[in-house]
Amino acid sequence: MRDQGGGLRVTIRDVANAVGVSTATVSKVLNATGRVSEETRKAVLDAAKRLDFRPNAMARALQSSRSSSVGLLTDDTYGRFSLPLMAGVTEGLIAHGMSVFLCTIDGPPELGATHLDALLQKRVDGLIISGRRVDRLPDIDLSGVPVPIVYALSQGPEHGVTLAPDEKQGARLAVTHLIEIGRRRIAHVTGPERFRVVRERAASWRETLAAHGLASDMAVLNGDWSQRWGHTAVAELFDGRPEAEWPDAVFCGNDQIGHGLVDALRERGIAVPGQVAVIGFDNWHVLAEDSRPPLSSIDMNLPALGREVGLTLMRMIAGEHQAEGTTRLPCTLVRRASTIGPVG
Question: What one-character DSSP code corresponds to residue 292?
């Protein structure tokens, strides 16, 4: 980052590296909070002076925060999405001396209310609300909450600030990759149609095929988010069709479906990716890398999303206005052997 004079701005991390301490320790010294030895305090202040460290306006505003902490409330009990998101949130905030309290609210409404009350009693400076679905607001009453709120992987209110992965862009990446490796009959096997992400990805599948002059005579196959459904879907795709009409690629709505689908193809003696290339969505490493062959997938970059969520909330705490509505962050393609063959 450059300062107003055009030079590179010295960051709190630079000061921490110069002294050999954590950014949290530097923040404690600069904000006169927490316990730090006199020797460390002097070393930090000397380094800050030597490096001409000047906190930006955001950091100065945060110095007056009540607790240097934020709360993350989620109904994602399994942590499939909330844990990588929180890792990114923590990374984005730790350099500014902010800590994060994680509370799960998957249960009766009273549970969410209890956790919310506890966080407000701790005088958190802001809240992050996260969920398992981007088309559903977690069951918690946030009316009258006196601190800024950012929504992530969850439906936010009309005038709220929400960050989410760009589902349509991610689906476009998947289908474009299949087209670029020479596939032309690309099927789509996905989750329940009631999910907005399912409808968005399916729309992007159709649009991307059409943009490349391709059409699919196969309907979107909807099932549940499971390996069992991926396994079952193979029968619907291949049984009763002459081999010339088989799909030569399948775009799966998540990695669980993709994993099950690859298993069923292998059992039938259909080569992946030789005869049929398969790509999933989510880049859930435990499934994608355990698949035989390993599954190409679309990564929603949840840690990066979390970092941006944390920094957005920090700017709101500092009094900076943030655009209302949903901001979508790009997904990335992770190539593995299920579309490009053995690697190495």
Answer: S
